[in-house]
Amino acid sequence: MTAMTVTLDGRSTVIWRDGTFPGTPEPVAYAIEDLEHDLRTAFASGTPVAGDAPATIAVRYDRALDDEQYHVTVDDAANEIIVSGADDLGCIYGLYAISRSWLGFEDFWFWNDQRPAVRDRLVLDADARLDSSPAAVRYRGWFVNDEVLIVAWNIRNDNELTWRMVFSTLLRCGGNLVIPGSGQNMEPHWDLARHMGLYVNQHHATPLGARLFSEAYPGTRARWPEDHDKYEALWRESIERQRGSKVVWTLGLRGSSDGPFWGDDPRHVTDEDRGRVISEAIRDEYDLIRASDPSAPVSTYLYSEAFELYRKGLLDIPDDVIKIWADNGYGRMMVRRNGNWDPREPAMPSADDPGANGIYYHASFYDLQAANHITQLPESPDDIARELAAVLANNGNALWVVNCSNVKPHVLTLDLIACMWRNGPDLDVDAFLDDYARRYYGEEPSSAVARLMRGYWDAAAGFGDQWDQKCGEQFYNYLPRMIATHYLSGNRDEENDLAWLVRGGFADQIAYVQGICDAAFPRYDRLARDCERAALDAEDHGDAHAAQLIRDTIGLQATIYRESIHGTTLVCTAVGEALAGDFKHAFYHAGLARERFEAGNAAMRAREHDVWQGYWANDCLTDVKFSAQVCATLMSYLRNRGDGPHYFRWKHEFCYAEQWRDVIVVLNMENHETDEEMFHAMKQVWGEE
């Protein structure tokens, strides 16, 4: 008996067919469009293939399934593949399951430039099927925060396409919730997120998604309870604006500029009073939500001052509100460092804590000290997986909000976290890394790529002795700027901005930073060289994709670290020489530092190709190119101190022949050199000393 089959090829179509819902639901329509793109890409040109007519993919609801579940089956008699979903998200996940499991598109295919091998068709047996499993976390998704790269970069000159790709990637990896931007940047993307079927959550700085008090009432300092009616008007406005949408509401009270409310109203000085005010605001917001939608999911962030007050028993939170605990920005469930204050207090959900719990977790963090923003977490994935497993063991499974930032630098971390929010705590990290390398880089180079990944985490320097105290790329950009700026201020005492890292005199602080850099540089230099060798090996085997992706990912990140670390070392050297009065060498080493930061920025821009043109242009938070600019400012000051006020001695030493250097009849017969020209004149004499 001949086995019954159906065939997918470039002519296959995707349709909505549900007698209870005649029009295609808008969220499902977006996913249908994505799958149609994937079909056209996976199969050769849509040209007819001899043999069976192509199967149609038909999508419908199956209300007997649990929320968000799906099954995909083959109806060979009708020559159809049936996607049955419990609801919009179930249908969406089923469509993306076809793309992933049968067509070969990985969840982060776009961000890693992955495409399946093109073929003529795919033949499926009649018993082929795909079935979902309940996710380990109920609400799970991303906070698109500090999104400075993707707001300035567009897909086909359309920034909405950029955001659509972010949201569709989140859906592909099983997410169902998003905070679509930072602060007031959220509002332009709310509608797209909702149209694509995602729940919307709100940043802790904007409870209920309401406008900030200072925005709505400029020039007015908020006071509680006097301004309660003004707050309530903003809350009601936001609730009405989002009526009928899928929202996980955020409750709380914060001040302007994402700080404690008592920064605006300093009359509240005791913890008891502050806890009472926040509790009153939470209760009022809660009552408004319950009056509008009695069953709506509601959350509150135990972040910063809210965590401290809750830990002291001073916050009254309704029982059915999801409490969101926050990591410290470095992957560990601890209170975050704030300036020089770092209590190292656990912030892990407690299994004994009543009610539902969730987490706010950072794949990317911006703290102007030592975190990672344009590179992936330097903390080991073994530690990350253990920490998230502990979260699940402590009943932290109601809501995960992951700071995904600009997505592309953090794909591996985001993929690992998505595996755990789907499947739970039992993740074999080595197997995950091997599988990730195969899926995105290919079978042949996968072992080498997995070793490079491990090399990335092994290279990370520590600013402390705990696993979560690793130096991200901000360490090697903000600290040299702190050192240069403190020197330029004329202050030679301890630099307070470095006190979180090391206490003592300014010279001692510089030496401490330089020691960290001196130890880290050889590791990143070796890693960058290993990445380039692996890319060349891939090219030798005819694998241009793997070579490009190695250079775009681990290779680029290793280079950013190498150049930034080298630049930081040179800044430390320059300022140390300046403190000793050697302004000539200090100027020169500041110039060499500027070159290294410029090289780091150039490395990013060199990896802009195809759709990625301009992606790295707006690196304005870590801002490697600005580190170079600060070095240029330092150079000008050092030249002023060492060669001013007449600016001829360095010219004679580095621009004149030896027999004329000490002949001073006329100070100079040519224009004064720019700092750049003087630096290059020194470089001709001194080289790369």
From TrEMBL:
Keywords in alphabetical order, please.
Hydrolase
- Out of the domains of life, which is the source? Bacteria
GO biological processes:
carbohydrate metabolic process
Q: Which InterPro entries match?
A: GH115, GH115_sf, Hex-like_dom2
Protein name, entry field:
Glycosyl hydrolase family 115
What molecular functions are annotated in GO for this chain?
hydrolase activity
